[in-house]
Amino acid sequence: MIEIALTGGMGSGKSTVADAFVARGAELIDADRIVRELQEPGQPVFEAMVQRWGTGVVAEDGTLNRGAVAEIAFNDDDELKALGEIVHPALYNEIERRRGLLAGSDAVVVLDLPLLVGADGTSIADQFGELAGIVVVDADTETTVERLVAGRGFDEADARTRIANQASREARRSVADWVIDNSGDLTALERNIDNAWEWITSLPHTSAS
Q1: Alpha-carbon torsion 33, 74, 78, 41, what sign?
Q2: Which residues are CB-neighbours of 85 under 8 A, at least 6 positions away?
Q3: What is the Cα gyration radius of the chain?
Q4: 179 by DSSP, 3-state: which?
Q5: Are 49 and 39 in contact, with CB atoms under 8 Å apart?
């Protein structure tokens, strides 16, 4: 298989790019979607989160109140660390399970990893063994803030705080083998995705490790 990592900050359009790769034939392993599955009621991750933070993180319908979790975790470094300690082991185990199912195939596998580069600038790419490349979706800060406010209902101050608490654009770009610029319109993005896909499909096959 040809296996790449895909990353980008909030509001960069990373999920749009991931879906575009799928439309072109890629197999997607999406960390965010896996986390949502792991946080469904009855799952061990969900139970561990409720045990730590109580029923205040449970919505009226019994599902996880993600807003309440974000309010706790993104305003306290210790709680953010605790969240990672609950979620990340299960997440990476599931990612490895899915990678194993595709190993040895001819698939183009996209690992969608929002936290590939941490807020301190360090990358966890080595954790995934041999990757054919790393693709970073990048957009300027003002554009990402505007998207988060207009498209996802964020308060502007909250959007800026969350962006500031993530890896910098420079840190992400420093690990990239290919950068998809998404500061423009959809037509420009489609063209950039086509160019990236042409590059991806030219890469050598790798093995999940």
Answers
A1: negative
A2: none
A3: 17
A4: strand
A5: yes
How far apart (Å, rounded) are the C-alpha atoms in residues 161 and 145?
10
pLDDT digits (tens, 9 = 90+) for 108-167: 999 999 999 988 899 999 999 889 999 999 999 999 999 999 988 888 998 898 888 889
43, 169 in Cβ contact below 8 A?
A: no
**Amino acid type, 181:** D
Tell me the sheet residues that pair with 4.
110, 133
Amino acid of residue 40: E
CA distances from 164 to 23, 64, 75 (A): 32, 25, 13
**How far, in Å, CA of 105 to CA of 166, rounded?**
34
pTM of the model: 0.89
Listed in sequence order, the residues at least 6 apart from 38 whose beta carbon sits closer than 8 Å to its beta carbon are: 44, 45, 46, 87, 90, 91, 94
> Which strand (E) or helix (H) includes residue 108?
strand 108-112
The first and second tokens of residue 188, run together, are 């420009």
Neighbours of 161 (CB within 10 A): 13
Which residues lie closer than 8 Å to 50 by C-beta, 6 or more apart? Answer: 57, 58
Distance between the two ends of the chain, CA-based, in angstroms?
12
